[in-house]
Design goal:
The protein is mainly alpha-helical. It contains 13 helices and 13 strands. The model has no long low-confidence stretch (mean pLDDT 96).
């Protein structure tokens, strides 16, 4: 059963999304948070995650042949390079948020640093000057400062001088580290034999984290992944109970992350080839099934709830655009891995709902947050900050599961499909 929408429709949607972010530059450097019309919000700080995602997306735009995307990717890279607004030239690493007077917070966090690796990998695949240097530096920081080899995961937060490590551990940072390691491995695999050896090491780390999630955490909690842990990786199921809708550390279990982990497990499985363990596919299917079970229309309205408690009851009922984007990508990945028609049916269902509710045909991009009844909301995510998840949803269904999206585009593996 073929996937719907068609590749031609997805290509048009990808172009429409990139049109929305035609000039996302922040006047102080890097990329800005975008408002509902795609205008930079200059009075917000320059944020590391937004700039890195922007480099990634516009590197993909360049690989898709879009005019102006190379210049945008290069603009973002300048903010991450030595002397750039986001780089800590004294202690190394990158600031999470920089305002008019300097860094808004001086802690160094794994979540954002994983996106620096992703930005460097995508810029390298796109042949952008400075991309490889950024990738090498970011990998060094990620692996020497954040990777915890005893746990097979990443620690979360250091002070600016890398002297004090916070006790919090988070699964969100671990997930994006897996994504970053896979992207970096794909780039390094094109090097000489030493590059292939380095790539294998990165994939081995990604496998260790994925193993812990799919074979330990998910089965222990009926598929509902804990997000928050202490320094011994003991889950804290009551974390942020008083701040349930926190944009980065919400209470409970985050349905969209189960979709994202499922998809990443399939990319990892494809990258490992014959060496892939046999638990990756059933583990991905189980996580996806749990997300559909607990997330879709859980409160009687269509769409995926943002979070649920550990009995599966909805906590935050808002519909976040990124959750739907990860659902369509996971369904496409599972269809590619199994050929099962049910995943193609889900893919079509999720996209039909997105087209009806999320795609903003009047002002561009996607509404980033909806109220439970499907009307636009902005309590957690005002405006339309970035394109990362939505652009991915238009590309994953048109590409093989390995190599990753940037290298696959560079190698000409995109399915143009019928229009």
């Amino acid at each position: 059963m073929p996937l719907r929408p068609t590749s031609g429709w997805l290509a048009d949607e990808c172009a429409r999304l990139l049109d929305f972010s035609a000039d996302p530059r922040h006047p102080r450097g890097g990329f800005a948070w975008l408002d509902d019309d795609g205008r930079p919000v200059a009075d917000r700080p320059v944020e590391l995650w937004i700039t890195c995602r922007g480099v990634h997306v516009h590197a993909l735009g360049h690989l898709l042949g879009r005019d102006g995307s190379a210049a945008l990717a290069d603009h973002g890279l300048a903010a991450l390079a030595a002397g750039g607004v986001l780089r800590d030239d004294e202690h190394g690493g990158w600031w999470a948020r920089v305002g008019a007077q300097g860094p808004v917070t001086r802690s160094k966090t794994a979540y954002e640093h994983a996106f620096v690796v992703l930005a460097g990998a995508s810029a390298t695949a796109a042949g952008r000057p400075g991309g490889r240097a950024l990738l090498e530096e970011a990998l060094d920081v990620l692996l020497t400062r954040f990777w915890d080899d005893d746990a097979g995961m990443v620690v979360e937060e250091w002070d600016e001088a890398w002297t004090v490590l916070d006790g919090y551990r988070g699964l969100n940072a671990a997930m994006h580290t897996v994504e970053a390691l896979l992207a970096a491995a794909d780039v390094l695999d094109g090097d000489d034999p030493s590059g292939a050896t380095r790539a294998a090491g990165l994939r081995a780390r990604a496998l260790r984290s994925t193993d812990r999630v799919l074979r330990d955490l998910a089965p222990a909690h009926d598929g509902r992944l804990p997000e928050h842990f202490d320094d011994r990786w003991v889950p804290d199921l009551a974390y942020h109970r008083d701040r349930p809708a926190d944009p980065f550390r919400p209470a409970g279990a985050t349905v969209g992350h189960w979709m994202e982990w499922a998809r990443l497990a399939l990319h990892l499985r494809a990258a490992l080839g014959e060496d892939a363990p046999d638990w990756l596919l059933p583990g991905a299917e189980a996580l996806y099934a749990a997300a559909v079970r607990d997330g879709w229309a859980a409160d009687g309205h269509d769409g995926f709830c943002y979070t649920v408690d550990f009995d599966g009851r909805p906590l935050v009922r808002q519909r976040m655009h990124w959750v739907l984007a990860e659902a369509v990508s996971a369904a496409a990945a599972l269809h590619a891995a199994t050929g099962e028609p049910s995943y193609a049916e889900d893919h079509a269902t999720w996209w039909a709902w997105a087209e009806d509710r999320l795609l903003d045909r009047e002002r561009g991009s996607w509404h980033h947050e909806l109220a439970p009844d499907g009307t636009p909301d902005g309590a957690t995510w005002p405006g339309k900050p970035d394109l990362y998840h939505a652009v991915g949803a238009t590309l994953v269904p048109r590409l093989p599961l390995a190599p990753g999206v940037a290298v696959a585009l560079r190698e000409g593996l995109l399915d143009p499909g019928p229009t």
